[in-house]
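Example S7 (structure tokens).
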């Protein structure tokens, strides 16, 4: 099956059962790749990280980027947006089961992300009671620093866009968590 569409997201969406046979799609760097495996296993590469134990939170991460940017604007190569999506993915995964979490960025990033998430109230996205802004900010900057030095996020086309001191850096996470769905 083949379906190809140029989108307002400044990219392409393709639905195909034979991506591996289509060299045009493989070379298309603007292509959004969403994969749904109903049976069996699959190795998925997201941002140059191969994962063979995929569950729905990887799709959640990518759809969170769409939520961040909207459908009218092209996606931003933002280190802060990537960190917000990783944090949203972690909270989503943790709400389902604390025993599983897909590797995001790389294995060394997980404890940094978990430390940052420990500062966040999972119901509101704001700081937990008793957590100082200084403690949160230190963990936030450590997470940004880690992502910003990791390929492909260290490329010249990626913006760091760190939130200022005493600004909340995750507005879309707060918005999502406060919808009370």
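Recovered sequence:
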């Amino acid at each position: 099956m083949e379906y190809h569409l140029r989108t307002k997201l400044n990219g392409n969406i393709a639905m195909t059962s034979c991506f591996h046979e289509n060299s045009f799609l493989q070379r298309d760097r603007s292509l959004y790749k969403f994969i749904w495996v109903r049976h069996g296993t699959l190795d998925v590469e997201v941002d140059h990280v191969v994962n063979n134990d995929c569950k729905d939170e990887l799709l959640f991460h990518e759809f969170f980027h769409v939520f961040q940017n909207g459908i009218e604007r092209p996606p931003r190569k933002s280190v802060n947006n990537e960190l917000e999506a990783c944090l949203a993915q972690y909270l989503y995964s943790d709400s389902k089961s604390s025993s599983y979490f897909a590797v995001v960025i790389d294995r060394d990033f997980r404890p940094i992300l978990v430390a940052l998430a420990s500062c966040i109230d999972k119901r509101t996205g704001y700081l937990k009671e008793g957590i100082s802004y200084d403690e949160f900010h230190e963990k936030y900057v450590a997470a940004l620093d880690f992502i910003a030095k990791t390929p492909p996020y260290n490329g010249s086309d990626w913006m760091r866009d760190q939130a200022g001191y005493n600004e909340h850096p995750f507005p879309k996470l707060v918005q999502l968590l406060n919808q009370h769905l």
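Notes on this example. The chain has six helices and five strands.
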